[in-house]
Structure formats: structure tokens, C-alpha cells
Design brief:
- There is one protein chain.
- The protein is of the alpha+beta class.
- Helix content is about 25%, strand content about 25%.
- It is built from 19 helices and 35 strands.
- Strands 1, 2, 6, 7, 8, 9, 15 and 16 form an 8-stranded mixed sheet that branches. The chain has an 8-stranded mixed sheet with strand order 4-5-3-11-12-13-10-14. A 6-stranded mixed sheet has the order 26-27-28-25-19-29.
- Strand 12 (about 255-260) and strand 13 (about 265-270) form a beta hairpin.
- Helix 1 (about 15-25) runs parallel beside helix 5 (about 150-165), helix 1 (about 15-25) packs parallel to helix 9 and helix 2 packs across helix 3.
- The structure holds flavin-adenine dinucleotide.
- Flavin-adenine dinucleotide (FAD) binds near residues 174, 353 and 356.
């Protein structure tokens, strides 16, 4: 065994071996993999081998697409068969909402180049003659989809890695991990120690155990997952004898199962409610090729619906039930990327569709490690999307919930309920009393919108379809009434959000944005360091506020911060609440080593109440002796002031484009401040507003968001950040690459579009944008702008289609709408209201 390697990969399942393969393929041959037993002896050996391309996420979709493409070539490359059967994959829709979901997905698929066919029930019958088609609206089919032999796939990847110089040590257990004095990692095994530069944790069900060795709480706990293999059925065998093709993988999402042929019989795999987490303390030391006792009762409702759909399934005996551990995270997506706090530690864990994702995840992680950046925006799978709140108890509840929801419709406005309300700001109860309907981000409760007292969704609107598991609404509120219906279209809360916006536009509104991520950057070197990492100029004058972007080394956008010098050499940075761990970890890893700059996270020390609207000045002025006139307190400045007795840092900025102040205050004084504002505000008919109102107003201002209009995939200038990115200010992170990118020419341009002929559905992001029938871009955000009275969308298109007035087409849920490129900020383009 080697004593030194560039990378040590821990775990010889399909995910670890794929990572090793891709590292070697990128030219790093000094890489090793350590597996405690045999390759695939964790979860990989018993996987059903399905390769579902279906995924609503733009990033995960790209990973899956890459995997399927790679797997098709592996046999030719390595000589090792992987048993790939391209039998296609058919997803059945029984409800209108499901069909909407499929149509939304078909749009995502088009933007990433995945082929999808739409089938009528009769066409389903043609492909799957043994299926009944009663009650079906239709289906989507992935012709390139199919299944593979997971163990053979892993062996092929291992062979490909070894051929390129990588080494694999089987029956070797990683027992401890230490940091060396020189900053390398010492991986201690029962067969000796290896010093390395990078560690990749791909340890499947052992993820938390590996995390313990590293001192981090990895947000992965597996859930039990079962599938049934039947005896052969004569009708299936007869089809084979006649040389007829395999019938493909059949998925009835509304009954939460998949079914496919297997050796003349069937495999049925349900995703049930009530499947328990397992291996909470990690598998046993000796665990290998392990299965659990089956639980047929849990499967019964799914078996019944499967028999109704494919009666032949009920005519054969059960050969074997596999009940194995499947790794889960709270949102069901894997965690692929850097570990927080630790340098050169990478996680490729939490894979519930690991056979499908392994190729793409290994590919992108290898790019990240070798080149310093991936090429696909990995925000949706970044390990830092969960925070320290995601401990054991949280994972138990959330991961079971994620498993039970694999096949429920993924409504864009769905808010899952497990563990809530977990992180409450002090004014939570006050907002609730005002009718707040909450959403959850990064564990925080945030009002999404406000329902009138006693309001309830009419029962006729709620899901009465005869389907398993699906729910199209939030649980009942404290008054026993259901307030929110989820939909791919404009939903019941639409007019109420409009009322909130009208109130902000003509009067004054109050919003709780305490979930913002916040930190202080201080010390003698603070200004120079910030100047060296941010693309914007750091304001020289204290009190000025700047919007600062942190670019990737390639010139894309990694993060965005509002910066404000609170005290000399002490800068307050605010960024999106959901990105706290991501943003803070990124900053921390860039800190100078000489101690001249310190970073102090203060998210939970400060609350933020946003006061906005034309009457906000009159209201606030009555509560403070600080002069709030435009001359004394202009837009984009901040000041420390007292509101009554509450000391606030008041920042004259907001995300909605109205006159207003963000009041950053000691969190323990929040309710005192809240009551003062509401009492004084009563004179101005103050009303609260929520995230959905904010998003609608932000859209009308063409404000960009990280992970949507700004991402590592787009150069900062493609995202239209010319006002904030200054290559001529001197050196900063990503500057040279951005200039180089610009010289080579951009492939994308940011646009704001007005959509025409919209009735009950707006764009949301990920819809394809086309010109003369050819896809030339994708929407990144969308919605209805109440102040402009227009359905709007933001998007990225090929630059030649970005001129104002260009006519384009946007397909929303399968229907094409005319779109016109309009100037940025359709509402108040000169920012007169912000400057008022
Ligand atoms: C019943 C069932 C059916 C499934 N069907 C599908 C499917 O159809 N399609 C699909 O895409 N996915 C499917 N999955 C999921 C799939 O099996 C997993 O996502 C995938 O196998 C995960 O691979 P992995 O490499 O992350 O983990 P594993 O295969 O579990 O590999 C992790 C490895 O790390 C090793 N290890 C851990 N700790 C150490 C240590 N300290 N030292 C050395 N080695 C260590 C373990 O021994 C193990 O071999 C299914 C899962 C189940 C349970």
C-alpha cells in the first residue's frame, strides 16, 4: 500500500469508484481508493439499477444525463460489460397536477437536451400491452433511459481507473483521519497510514461515521427501501420467445411505484410512507451485503395499485424481497462538493439514486478537485446547503419525509412539514397572529404570505383524486382551516399577495428578513482583503453600502453580499439566508493566513425587519431622532440609529424597489421594535408582507439571484452585472478569467421579458426560450408583477437574441407564449422610488 497519494477516496461503491475513475481520467493518476470490504458490498450491489433521467433540477438533470451517456460507452472503453438495457422509461399521469409536473419537467429536459416523448394512454398500451390504461391522462417517455447492472458498472469504472494508474485497496478500513502539521491529511487504516492532499468521502451508509472522524455532522441518514422480485410470468416469457422488446420501466408516480421486467418476471419498487430511517449510528463494523427483514404490510397498498395497473403482476409468486438501506438527505438530493470548515475534504454522499448519479457526480467532483471549479452549477447538491441545525434528530424526521415524497408531485410552492416550526424568529407568533402562512428556508420560518382572518381554501379545490400519498395543500392551520393550495399554476394565495404589494406600493409594509446570513469582517487587513476578493469597489466613505460579488476563479458568480462598513475596519456582510454555510465557508477559506482579518458569524444575533413603501419615512421618523430626509440619509447608505429604545443599524436598501429601510437590530429586542413599528404604523395602515410579494416586486426590478440569474455557469457580465463588477479597479478574484472570457466572447446574455397571453400560469424558471422553434435560452425566474400588471420572466439567452424588442417564445407547462425582451427593471427603471 502506498504511504502518500494526491487523493484518497473512502468507499468502494459506485459513487466512490466513479470519483476515482474521473480523477484518473483528468490525469491525476496518483489517486487511491480504500474499501473496507469488497467493492459494491454497501448499497450498490442490491440496487435495482434503474437510471431515471427525470429530475426537476437543472443541475441534477445534467448529472444524470452525463451518467447515462457515459455508461453507454464504458463497455467499449474497458471491455467490461455493464449490462445496460436501454428499454425506455414511461411515467404515467393520473391527475392534472401530475401532468403539469411532467410538462414542467419536459421544459427542463429541453433546456438540458434530454429527449422526452409525450404518450397518449393508447400509446402506453402499445409499449406496455400488459398494462391497463384506465384513468390515465397520458405519460412521458424517456427513450434513452433504462437500467444497468450496478456491480458490473462499478467494476468497469474500477477497471477504467486502474488502467489510468489509480489503485484500489480492498478489505482495508479507514479508522481515523488527522490533519498533519504541514496541512496534509493522514488517513489511518488497519493496513497502514496514507498521507494525502485531498480526501473524498464516498462512504454511503457510513457517511456520518466518516464525518465523525473528520469532526463534521454529515447530513445523511439512510432509510429502508424495498423492492420485490417475482417469479417469471408466462406472458412475459412468451413475449421473449417471440423476440418482442422489453416493455420498459413503468412508473406510476401517483401510486408511488416503479415496475419493470426482470428475468421473465417483474420487479416492483414502491416508495412508501412510513419507511423508517436505519443505521442511525452507522452500520455494524462487520456489515457487508446486508439486507433487512422485509415489511410486506408497508408495501400492500402499492402492490394493490400495481396489480390494478398490471394484473399479470398479481398472477406470479414473490421470489425475493430486497429491503436495503438507501442513503438520504433532508431534501432527497445528494451532497456533492466541498465539506465546510475543512480544506481539501470533499463529500460525495447521500445518494438515493446513486447508480444514476454516480457518473455525473464523479465527473463534476473531479473537475472541482483538479480544476478548482466544477462546470455545472452544483448549488442544488452543494453539501453546504444544510446548516448546523441539520443534526441527527432533524435528519431522522426529514429524511423519512424526503423518502415518502419521492413520487409526490414536486409543486414549486410546496412547503414540507417535518420538524417545523424549527427556527423561529422572536416575532414568529406576532406574524402568525397577523395571518402569516409560513415557508421554511435553512430551517427558518419565514412568512410567505398573509391570509385574511378565517380564510380557508374551498374544499372543492383540494385533492380528492384517488391517488396514494399525494397532497396538494399545506396542513390545516391552528384554526383548523387549510390556507394554502400548492400548484404549478397561480394558486389561491395569488390575489392576497397582490393585496400585500398594493399596500407596500401605496402605503407601508413590514417584512421579517431575520433569516439573512450575516457576518462581521474586521481587522487591520479587512478592507484590503475584501477589495482583493470582491469584484465591486469597497466604498471609501463609511456608511456607504455596496452590492459585492464574489466571483469564481473562472469569472462566474459564486456569491453576493451587501457590504456596509459599520465601524472603522469592521464590515457587515449580509447574504441570502439559505446560503449561510455556503457563503461563510467560502469566505472563511479565503481569509488571509496572517491573522490580519477576522470573521465573526452573527446571523442569529441580529434580526432584520424591513420597512418599505412611500410612507415608511414618515412612520420611522416619528420613532427616531435621526434625520431621515433624503439629504441626510440617502439611498444606499446606512446609519446606526435608535428606534424608540432599540439600537438599529438602518440600511437604506431593499429587494423590492421601494423607499425603505432594513432595520438590523439585536434579536432579543425584536418584539419591542416590532410593536413600536406596528403601533406607529397603524396611523399609516401598515400591513405585513411576505416572501412571495417580495419575489414579485424583485422580478419587476430585474433583481438577480444566486443560483438563478447568477451562477458559476455564467460569466458575471453575462448576468448583466456591469454596474457591480469593475475589472479596471485592480486585481480581484476571478478578474483575469472574466476578462479572458469576455475576449473569447459570451454565449449568454441576461434578459427581462414580458410574456403575452398569460392566463393562469406564469413562468417560474427553467422554461425553455425559443426563436423560430429552436431553443436559444432558458428562463431563470418568472411570475406576475402586480405593480406593472404584467407577467414577467428573467432569463439567459444567446446574445444575438437579447436586444430590446426581440420577440421570443416561452413554453410554460407545454403551451407556447409570445415573449418580448423589455428594458431592465420594468417598474421604476430610474429608481425614483428608491431614491425618493
Ligand atoms: C433496494 C434498493 C434499490 C435501489 N435501486 C436503485 C436504482 O434502481 N437506481 C439507483 O440509481 N439507485 C438505486 N438505489 C440506491 C443506490 O443503491 C445507492 O444510491 C448507491 O449504491 C450508493 O452508492 P455509494 O457508492 O454512495 O454507497 P455504497 O455502495 O454503500 O458504498 C459505500 C462504500 O463505502 C465503504 N466504506 C464506508 N466506510 C468505510 C471506511 N471507513 N473505510 C473503508 N470503506 C468504507 C462501504 O463498505 C461501502 O462499500 C437503491 C437502493 C436500495 C437500497
Amino acid at each position: 500500500m502506498k504511504t502518500h497519494a494526491k487523493v484518497v477516496v473512502i468507499g468502494g461503491g459506485v459513487v466512490g469508484v466513479s470519483t476515482l475513475y474521473h480523477l484518473a481520467k483528468k490525469g491525476w493518476s496518483d489517486v487511491v481508493l480504500i474499501e473496507r470490504k469488497e467493492l459494491t458490498s454497501g448499497s450498490t450491489w442490491h440496487a435495482a439499477g434503474l437510471l431515471p433521467l427525470f429530475n426537476l433540477s437543472y443541475s441534477v438533470g445534467q448529472l444524470h444525463k452525463y451518467s447515462v451517456g457515459l455508461y453507454k460507452t464504458l463497455e467499449a472503453e474497458t471491455g467490461q460489460s455493464v449490462g445496460f438495457k436501454q428499454v425506455s422509461n414511461i411515467r404515467l399521469a393520473r391527475t392534472k397536477d401530475r401532468w403539469d409536473e411532467f410538462m414542467y419537467y419536459a421544459g427542463v429536459a429541453q433546456t438540458i437536451g434530454v429527449k422526452v416523448n409525450l404518450l397518449t394512454p393508447e400509446q402506453v398500451k402499445d409499449v406496455w400491452p400488459m398494462a391497463e390504461i384506465d384513468g390515465l391522462i397520458g405519460a412521458i417517455q424517456h427513450p434513452d433511459d433504462g437500467y444497468i447492472q450496478p456491480a458490473d458498472l462499478t467494476q468497469a469504472l474500477a477497471k477504467g481507473a486502474r488502467t489510468r494508474g489509480a489503485e484500489i485497496y480492498r478489505n482495508t478500513v479507514v479508522q481515523g483521519i488527522e490533519r498533519t502539521a504541514s496541512g496534509e491529511w493522514l488517513v489511518k487504516t488497519d493496513k497502514g497510514d496514507i498521507t494525502c492532499e485531498h480526501i473524498v468521502s464516498a462512504s454511503g451508509n457510513f457517511a456520518r461515521k466518516t464525518g465523525e472522524m473528520l469532526g463534521i455532522d454529515v447530513p445523511v441518514i439512510p432509510v429502508e427501501h424495498q423492492y420485490i422480485v417475482t417469479e417469471p410470468h408466462p406472458a412475459v416469457q412468451e413475449r421473449h420467445a417471440k423476440g418482442l422488446p422489453e416493455m420498459g420501466v413503468l412508473r406510476e408516480a401517483d401510486s408511488s411505484w416503479y415496475l419493470r421486467e426482470e428475468a421473465g418476471g417483474f420487479i416492483l419498487g414502491p416508495y412508501e410512507k412510513g419507511a423508517p430511517v436505519c443505521y442511525v449510528d452507522g452500520p455494524d463494523k462487520e456489515s457487508e451485503y446486508e439486507l433487512f427483514q422485509e415489511d410486506l404490510d408497508r408495501l400492500a397498498p402499492h402492490i394493490e395499485t400495481a396489480i390494478a395497473r398490471v394484473p399479470a403482476f398479481g398472477e406470479v409468486g414473490v421470489k425475493k424481497v430486497y429491503n436495503g438501506a438507501i442513503a438520504y438527505t433532508p431534501d432527497g438530493n445528494p451532497i456533492v462538493g466541498p465539506a465546510w470548515d475543512l480544506p481539501n475534504v470533499w463529500l460525495n454522499e447521500g445518494h438515493s439514486f446513486g447508480v444514476t448519479a454516480a457518473g455525473g457526480a464523479g465527473w463534476q467532483l473531479a473537475e472541482w478537485i483538479v480544476d478548482g471549479e466544477p462546470t455545472v452549477d452544483m448549488m442544488g447538491v452543494d453539501p453546504r446547503r444544510f446548516g448546523p441545525y441539520a443534526g441527527r434528530g432533524y435528519l431522522r424526521e426529514k429524511n423519512e419525509e424526503a423518502y415518502a415524497n419521492v413520487f409526490t408531485p414536486h409543486y414549486p410552492d410546496e412547503e414540507r412539514i417535518a420538524t417545523r416550526p424549527l427556527r423561529q424568529t422572536p416575532c414568529y407568533d406576532r406574524m402568525k397572529a397577523l395571518g402569516a402562512v409560513f415557508g421554511s428556508v435553512y430551517g427558518w420560518e419565514r412568512p410567505n404570505w398573509f391570509a385574511p382572518k378565517g380564510y380557508e381554501v374551498p374544499a372543492s379545490e383540494l385533492n380528492v383524486d384517488d391517488v396514494l400519498l399525494n397532497e396538494n395543500h399545506a396542513p390545516a392551520a391552528d384554526d383548523g382551516k387549510i390556507k394554502e393550495k400548492w400548484s404549478f399554476r397561480r394558486s389561491n394565495y395569488f390575489p392576497f399577495v397582490g393585496d400585500e404589494i398594493k399596500n407596500v406600493t401605496h402605503g407601508v409594509g413590514l417584512q421579517d428578513m431575520s433569516a439573512f446570513a450575516k457576518c462581521m469582517i474586521s481587522g487591520p487587513g479587512a478592507r484590503a482583503w475584501l477589495d482583493s476578493i470582491f469584484a465591486n469597489r469597497i466604498p471609501k466613505q463609511r456608511g456607504r453600502i455596496a452590492l459585492c460579488h464574489l466571483l469564481t476563479t473562472k469569472g462566474g458568480v459564486r456569491a453576493e453580499f451587501t457590504l456596509y462598513e459599520m465601524a472603522p475596519n469592521s464590515f457587515y456582510l449580509v447574504s441570502a439566508g439559505a446560503l449561510e454555510r455556503h457563503d461563510h465557508d467560502t469566505l472563511r477559506k479565503l481569509l488571509p493566513k496572517d491573522g490580519s482579518v477576522t470573521m465573526t458569524p452573527i446571523t442569529t444575533a441580529y434580526g432584520v425587519l424591513v420597512l418599505a413603501g412611500p410612507k415608511s419615512r414618515d412612520l420611522l421618523q416619528a420613532l427616531t431622532d435621526t434625520d431621515l430626509s433624503n439629504a441626510a440619509f440617502p439611498w444606499l447608505t446606512g446609519k446606526r440609529l435608535s428606534v424608540g429604545a432599540v439600537q438599529c443599524e438602518a440600511l437604506r436598501v431593499n429587494f423590492i424597489g421601494e423607499l425603505g429601510w432594513e432595520l438590523h437590530h439585536p434579536i432579543e429586542m425584536q418584539n419591542h421594535l416590532f410593536d413600536l413599528l406596528m403601533k406607529e404604523g397603524a396611523k399609516h395602515n401598515i400591513k405585513p408582507f411576505g416572501i412571495r410579494a417580495m419575489m414579485s416586486m424583485a422580478l419587476e426590478k430585474s433583481y438577480r439571484l444566486v443560483g438563478r440569474e447568477m451562477s458559476i455557469e455564467y460569466a458575471a457580465f453575462e448576468s448583466g452585472l456591469q454596474r457591480f463588477v469593475h475589472p479596471n479597479k485592480g486585481a480581484f478574484l476571478g478578474r483575469d478569467s472574466l476578462v479572458e472570457w469576455q475576449q473569447k466572447g459570451f454565449k449568454n446574455a441576461f434578459v427581462t421579458m414580458e410574456l403575452h397571453g398569460i392566463e393562469d400560469v406564469d413562468a417560474r424558471g427553467s422554461e425553455p426560450i425559443s426563436k423560430d422553434g429552436k431553443v436559444i435560452g432558458r428562463c431563470t425566474s418568472g411570475g406576475f408583477g402586480w405593480r406593472t400588471g404584467k407577467s414577467l420572466a428573467l432569463g439567459m439567452v444567446a446574445p444575438e437574441f437579447s436586444a430590446i424588442g426581440t420577440e421570443l417564445d416561452v413554453v410554460i407547462l407545454g403551451k407556447s407564449f409570445r415573449a418580448t425582451v423589455v428594458p431592465e427593471s420594468p417598474f421604476d427603471p430610474d429608481n425614483e422610488r428608491l431614491r425618493a
